[in-house]
Predict the 3D structure of the following.
Amino acid sequence: MIQLTSQNIQLQAQAKNKEEAIRAAGRVLINAGNIAPGYIESMLGREEQANTYLGNGIAIPHGMGKDRELIHKTGVSVVQFPDGVEWNPGQIVRIVVGIAAKSDEHLSILAALTEVLDDTATADRLACTNDPADIIRGLGGNGAKPATAETPGDLPNPQYLEVQLRPGAGLHARPATNFVHIANEFQSELRVSFGGKTANGKAMASLLKLGAQGGATLHLSASGPDADAVLAALKEGVESGLGDEDEKETPVIAERASVPESSGRAIGGVAASPGLAIGRLHHFRADHIVVKDTPGDPDVEWGKFRDAIESAKGQLEDVYDSMKARVGKNEASIFRAHLAFLADAELAGEATALIEARHSAAWSWQQTIERRVAEVRQASDHHIAARAADLHDVGQRVLRLLAETEHSEAALPDQPCILIAADLTPSDTAKLDPQRILGFVTVAGGPTSHTAIIARSLDIPAIVGAGAAVLELTEGITCILDGTSGSLYTEPSAAELESARAFQVDMQRQRDEENFARYQPALMTDGHRIEVVANIGKAAEAATAVDAGAEGVGLLRTEFLFLERNTPPTEDDQFEAYSEMTRALNGLPLIIRTLDIGGDKVVPYLPQPKEDNPFLGVRGIRLCLRKPELFLPQLRAIFRASVTGPVKIMFPMIATLEDLRAAKEVAEQVRAELGVPPVEIGIMVEVPSTVVMAAEFAQECDFFSIGTNDLTQYVLAMDRMHAALAKQVDGLHPAVLRMIEQTVRGAESAGKWVGVCGGVAGDPRGAVILAGLGVTELSMSIPSIAAVKAHLRGISHAKAKAFAKQALACKTANEVRALPLP
Ligand code: PEP
Ligand code: MG
C-alpha cells in the first residue's frame, strides 16, 4: 500500500489555471522520485481526453496508460490550492491528487477519496488545513469503508478455494454476470470473500458489493453435493477472465480537433461516444417515482411484486432482442446483466422480508434497491461503482411497474436535439432514436458506463460526467457537442459552427462515398473480382439487401421462417416467402439454406429430447433427414420457387459424405416429382471433418460456403455462445484460417467455388484475408456491404494474397489482428 508522507504533500499552493495546477502536482511527483519529467505532459494529455474532476473540490490528474514507462515507482502527490482553481466552468478544485500508477497500489487512496467525496465538511477542512498530518489522516489510504450490509451466513462443511482475478479484470457487471451464471449451474451454496467482506456468490448485487478489483484474490467456499464441481468451474471461469472485455477507458480520439481551440464557452466532460453533433439543447427530465409506505396485505403485495419482476423480465428480454438486432449481441448483453439482477435471490429475499413486515411491495422494493445502489456506488473500483447505474435502472424498471406509472416517453421532443440530463439510464439510452437525438450530455456517469457503451453502438455522440453546470444551460440554445474530445461548446460563433459543419461533412463524405459506390462491383485494383452478397433471414430483407449494394443473397437462414410461431410454416407459406425474395432480387442469385435448427435454435412445436451437447447433436441436416415432414415441404417450396429466379440449395452442418448423399437423394426425388430443372447444390463447410475431406466433398456438390461462426467453435472447441469464452472464439485465429485455406484447395481440385458466410466475411480485415486465400464470394450482414466493397476496391488481389500468407503464418488470433492492413 502507498504511504502518504509529507514529502508527497504541498500545502498553500496557488495556480492560475488547471494546467499550472497539474504541473504543480507533477513536480511533487518528480521531486519524490516517482516520475520522469515527461510524465507531466502525459498528465496534461490525459486531461484533454477526460476530465479528472471527481467532485467536492477534488481532481485526480494522471497520465496516459501508454506512458507508464515514465513512472519510476507508483505514487501520489497531494497539492492543496486553498483559493481554488477553475478546473472546468463551474468546477472549482482545491485539492489536486496527482497519480502515477504502475499498478493498483494507489487504489486504497482512491478508496479513501471516495469517502471524502461524500463528506463536504472533511473536504473543506482538508482544502485549507496548514497541517500535512491532516491530509495524511484524511487520505492516508486506510481502505474503503467497512461493509455495512449484513454478511450472508456461514456454510455447513464448506470446501475452500482461492482464485485470483486477472489483472485489469475486476468483478464488475459482465464478469460478475458470468460468475453468477456459472455458480447457478450448480446446486451448492457459495460464498465469496474479499477484503473482509463476504458475498453470496450466486447473487449479482451481492458480488458487486465486494468491490473486487483486477488481481484481487477471492476466497470461495462452497457447500453442497457438487461443491467440488462448482469450485472447479469457477476457477476455470475466473482464470479465463470471466468474459470480461477490455472496455476502453476513453473511446477513439479524433485525429484533429473539430472545433477551434479558441472557442468561447466550452464545458468539458468525459468523451463517451465519438462524433460531432450540432443542435439545440433540450433538458431531459426522467420521471421521478414517488412511493409511499402504505401498509399492505403480505399475500397481495407479494403477488404484485412477483408479477412486476416477471413483467420486468419480459421487458428486458424485449429490450435485449431489439438491441441485439440494432447493434449486436455484445452490446445488448448489458441487458442480460440487468436480467441477472432480477434473478438475484438476495435482492428478492430482502424485498420479501419487508413485504412480510406488512409494507407495500413498491416501498419494499424501493428500500432494497436504494440500499444496494448506495453500497455498490461506494466500491473503489470505478468499473464496479459504475454498475450502480445499472442496478438503479433495473430497480426503476420494476418500481415503475409496481407504482403503476407510465414511463414518460413524452420527455423526448419531436425535433432533433442534443439532450442534457442529470443521468440517463441504459434503458433510456437504448430507446433514443439517433434521427431525433443528435447527441447527449450527462452530469454524471463514466466512459465505461453502459449508457456510454450503448451510445457508441447507436452512433450517438455523447459526453458524460460533465458536472452540474450543464443543468444551468438555457433550453433551446444552439451547441456543438464534440463527443470525441468530450467538449460541449455553447452558443458558438458563426466561424465555429462553420468549422464544425465542415468536419461533419468530412466524416459523412467517407460514408457517403462508400454508399455511393455500393452498386459498383468489388473489383480489386488488379481486376480480380469478389462477389459481395448478403445474409438475410426474412423476405423483406431481400429488397433491403439489393438497395444496400448486395449482388445477391449468399445465405438465407430459413430457420427464421420457422421460429417465433406455434406451428411450422406450410409449403405454400414458404413458397410465398422464397418467391417474394426472387422477385426482389430480380435475377440476382439466392442461396437458400435448408432448415438449420437444433444447437442454439429451438422451435416450440418441435419438442426435441434434451441433449447434453446440442451443438454436437441432432442439428441442421441431421434433424431434417430424421424429420421428412419438415424437410420435404421445404424442399418442395424451394424447387417451386426455383423457377421464379436463380435459386441454389445449401445444406447446413454437413459432416459426412453419407449425410450429403442422403440429402441430395431426397432433393432429387422432390425435384423429379415436381418436374422442374435441377439447381446447384452446395454445402455449408462448418465442421472440421468436411474441411479435411474437402476434395472428396467437392466432387459431390457444386459449391462450398464456409460458416466461420460454427467452424470456429468446432475447430477451437469453444462454444460460440459461451460468455466466458467470447473473446477467444475468434474467426481470424490462424487455425481457422488454415482450415479455410485447406477448404479452398480442396474445392479448386474439383473446379468448384468457395464462399464464406460467417461473421469474418463482413469484417474488412477478414474480407481481405479471405480474398487473398482464394474465396470468391463473401456473404455478410447488410450494413457491412458498402464498406467491405469499398475496402476491397482499394487494394490489389496480389497484396491481399501476400497479406493472407502473413496471416496464415501467425501463431495467434491477436497476431493476425495486429498485422497492419495493406
Ligand atoms: C456460420 O456458422 O458461420 C453460419 C453462417 O451459420 P449460422 O451462424 O446460422 O450457424
Ligand atoms: Mg452455422
Remarks:
- The first helix runs from residue 18 to 31.
